[in-house]
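> forwarded from #structure-qc
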């Protein structure tokens, strides 16, 4: 079903009654950074419980009914929602420069069991100079869930949306500040760190005596196949892989990646573990590297990379993003947005032990393969062809 702006439809008419489903957003942002969020609202259309705002800093609702799987996909199991949540509003908000009338052709797809049930197509002509959009609404009426393609522009960004829905934006954490009194509105932290340009870096201090805890590197990319035309045939999907080179303090070096089945280990050396292998992007959470930050003192440096194992070397199509999450700090986001379409490997970020602190530097350099990347960063490993 093609859904037009303002149209309302029962989920039962789409075959989605009592079924888990996803909404996948294929956004043509023209280089703008656009954050997606889903607000779980009460009968008064207010965010009475901040835990039901699902976004980059809070990727799942406490009941598990709503999950953000990557930068543009929500998973829904509405049967899990408590009765206090009356509607869900999916929003877009620009982070940085730009306005919504700069959007290219975009699509929101409703997917159940791998089959497209409905789609809502939109572009910048639907909006003016707004910096946010209330895109879709799922709501209860007469005991049944319905969908509305809202498509309404909204002045302000994500913080303005939070306030519109009755929440309050938490201030960024600052050292040695007296605790504030309990707020009347629920507080939502929108803090994140985006390394924009090659060479941008951030140093994260350890929290507590033990170390940095469980450091998570997540690679995610677009799950919507490219089409030859607006309603054309699908192109072959891309297998985008995550991996890393590592160097121990005593000079030993190697790599952790799915290719060659070198998955590493978390509790013992090298204290880096690759969790599985997402071949096509069908694993909604993407790929993960887990680093045991309590053993950072035994690691000198880690070069995180992504490479296209299968498919055309089209980084713009992949729309990849690596998020590095360190306990006690806002997530650090590195987008694979400085493309070299002729090279299938990208050095994403360098993680270094900087006197106990973790220094993260955006690399964003592209190579023809592992050996070229190895030479660039002086690892000195021997490479041979591998397979999964």
């Amino acid at each position: 079903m093609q859904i037009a702006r303002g149209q309302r439809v029962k989920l039962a008419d789409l075959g989605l009654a009592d079924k888990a489903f996803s909404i996948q957003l294929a956004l043509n942002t023209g280089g703008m950074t656009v954050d997606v969020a889903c607000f779980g609202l009460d009968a008064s259309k207010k965010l009475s419980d901040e835990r039901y705002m699902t976004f980059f800093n809070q990727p799942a609702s406490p009941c598990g009914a709503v999950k953000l799987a990557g930068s543009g996909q929500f998973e829904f199991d509405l049967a899990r929602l408590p009765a206090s949540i009356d509607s869900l509003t999916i929003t877009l908000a620009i982070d940085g420069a730009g306005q919504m009338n700069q959007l290219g052709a975009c699509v929101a797809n409703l997917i159940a069991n791998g089959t497209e049930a409905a789609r809502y197509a939109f572009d910048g002509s639907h909006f003016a100079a707004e910096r946010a959009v209330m895109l879709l609404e799922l709501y209860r009426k007469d005991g049944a869930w319905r969908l509305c393609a809202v498509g309404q522009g909204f002045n302000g960004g994500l913080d303005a949306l939070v306030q519109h829905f009755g929440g309050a934006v938490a201030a960024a954490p600052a050292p040695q500040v007296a605790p504030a009194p309990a707020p009347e509105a629920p507080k939502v932290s929108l803090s994140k760190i985006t390394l924009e340009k090659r060479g941008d870096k951030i140093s994260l201090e350890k929290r507590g005596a033990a170390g940095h805890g469980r450091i998570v590197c997540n690679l995610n990319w677009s799950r919507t196949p490219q089409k030859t035309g607006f309603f054309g045939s699908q192109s072959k999907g891309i297998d985008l892989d995550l991996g890393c080179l590592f160097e121990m303090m005593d000079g030993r070096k190697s790599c952790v990646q799915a290719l060659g089945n070198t998955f590493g280990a978390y509790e013992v050396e090298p204290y880096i573990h690759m969790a599985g292998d997402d071949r096509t992007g069908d694993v909604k959470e993407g790929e993960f590297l887990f680093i045991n930050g309590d053993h950072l003192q035994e690691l000198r440096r880690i070069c995180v990379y992504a490479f296209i194992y299968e498919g055309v070397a089209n980084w713009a199509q992949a729309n990849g993003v690596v998020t590095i999450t360190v306990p006690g700090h806002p997530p650090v986001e590195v987008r694979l947005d400085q493309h070299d379409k002729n090279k299938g490997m990208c050095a994403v970020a360098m993680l270094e032990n900087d006197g106990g602190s973790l220094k993260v530097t955006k690399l964003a350099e592209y190579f023809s393969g592992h050996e070229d990347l190895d030479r660039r960063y002086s690892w000195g490993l021997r490479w041979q062809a591998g397979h999964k």
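QC bot note: Residues 195-376 form a domain with the Lipoxygenase-1 fold (CATH 2.60.60.30). The two ends are 39 Å apart (CA to CA).
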